[in-house]
Amino acid sequence: MRLLDLYKVETLDNRFASKTGESLPNTPPSRWKTPEYYFYYACFLTIPFFMFKSVYDISQPEHPGYSKFEGLLENGWIPGRKVDNSDAQYSGFRDNVPYMALVLILHPLLRRLYERWTSGGDAQPAEANGAAADARLQRRITFDLTFAVIFITALHGVSALKVFVILWLNYQIATALPKQYVAVATWTFNIGLLFANELSGGFRIANIVALLLPPQTSAAGSVPGPGVGEWIDSYGGLVPRWEVLFNITVLRLIAFNMDYLWSLDRRASSPIEKKNLDPTALSERDRVSIGAQPTEYTFPNYLAYILYSPLYLTGPIINFNDYIAQSRHPLPTTTRTTILPYALRFLLCLLTMELVLHYLYAVAISKSSPDWKTYTPFQLSMLGYFNLHIIWLKLLIPWRFFRLWSLIDGIDPPENMVRCMSDNYSVLAFWRGWHRSFNRWIVRYIFVPLGGSQSDVSKLRAAVNYAAVFTFVALWHDINLRLLIWGWLIVIFVLPEVLARMAFPAKKWRDRPNQYRWLAGIGAVCNILMLMAANLVGFVVGWDGLKGLVDGIVSSLGGRVFLFAACATLFVGVQVMFEWRESERRRGVDMKC
């Protein structure tokens, strides 16, 4: 495999691979060897160096602001460098990588030993006949459920009981209520669960005991030490705050109930048999919609799906139908030839993150309540830029780790991050490639049931649908005002792009492709600035921090000159993004993001 092939999207997720390899219609010839793009190459060879150097310089002990964030740094493994491990979310993953790597190795080995033992020594993949496929499904469900119980108990200790109670209640909603109440009850229960987990801190036993029983005092009038509630809570496992990571499970709970509800509308005959489909070679669309029969929505299958260990903590999200279909018939994408390049991509991303954390202390600087006036406009903008890149990497790395574990185990979920953060210029397309499995979940279970944004839906209704979607997305991430502002900013920022597409339709510029490409580049620069602003508000510095950054950039003449130069640089990057997508189309790949 060539190095360039390693960075093709088909290496990340075979779902994007072209079936024919032929170029898509109306794809222009390559521009990579034109004078225009040779100029862009020169920009790419020089400008990134200064971008990195700007943050490297303010991360040095000689910088006046170093003393403010020095306490947030730790000793690193690179000689002479400290590491910025101040992001609590990523540090929890980073500190436990060796233990998780051990589980990644042991879990698939234990499965193979179990399958060899239960199948009489023949652990080969199931053939097309139904009996062999059903036997494979049953073996996988049994192992998945058994391992999940052990895994969840180790993670959450006594709180595992809370998880099982929630799962049982959700299953009763799907299977015990009259059909007409299932959808409303499912959404009410699970959205209420998000709020309840946030407000109660994960239903701590100590809080429940304090609510039910009056506080006890000793004869001297003092409150005694920790009671039975605190004692029970102390056995919280490796991840005592189970509610923090439970939001991803809520998505699977909703997905199962809705898929079960929709399965009741099918006729008694199997859709696979009716359409004369090969069950060993179902398309992804068929696996997601008809991969499981109504009789397979059993409680053990439900528990095995919800608690499937490789995807339990962070996803990616796979729906019940697809999980059952792949458990019955493994996909060809779970072989060594496809997994090894993906594993190499993961290791390169992990190494990149380590280098960034050892040399660019952007997170620690932002967390130290800095005096923005001590930084130049260029340094301020690069602080924001690299903070966003670290957010991208801190999400990408766990998602790819757990997807790699799942691939090794024989289940192929969608890839969550299919574009680099710096390879996005469209607000709409950005959300198709960022947390992609969540985006697909939103489309299937929220956006399409609400009516979507098709031609028969009014623009006002489509805007309301977008607002509903991003309000849910914000609340799902965390229940706070900052993320609500982020969600509504995204909805607002979609509007200029939609209006621009209406005002400048591509079909009217077919005779002037270069002029249209340059015009689109100007609009894309505006989109990038809006995307950066929204994500800085939602995930990095908040609204006040963004105002401090912006004021520091535009309050001086030098800052305004820099802003113009930055926009010109973004324009160059956008033109390369355009051509990269055209090169994908020449391979027959259309990612729509």
Automatic annotation (TrEMBL):
Keyword Transmembrane helix attributed: yes
Pfam family, one: MBOAT
Alphabetical keyword list: Membrane, Transmembrane, Transmembrane helix
Entry GO CC: endoplasmic reticulum; membrane
UniProt superkingdom: Eukaryota
Membrane-spanning parts: 38-56, 145-169, 342-362, 382-402, 460-477, 483-504, 516-541, 561-578
A molecular function GO annotation: O-acyltransferase activity
GO biological process, one term: GPI anchor biosynthetic process
InterPro entries from the UniProt entry: MB_O-acyltransferase (IPR051085), MBOAT_fam (IPR004299)
Membrane topology label: Multi-pass membrane protein
Subcellular locations according to the entry: Membrane
Major subcellular location class: membrane
Family membership: Belongs to the membrane-bound acyltransferase family.
Record's protein name: Glycerol transporter
Record organism: Friedmanniomyces endolithicus
Lineage: Eukaryota, Fungi, Dikarya, Ascomycota, Pezizomycotina
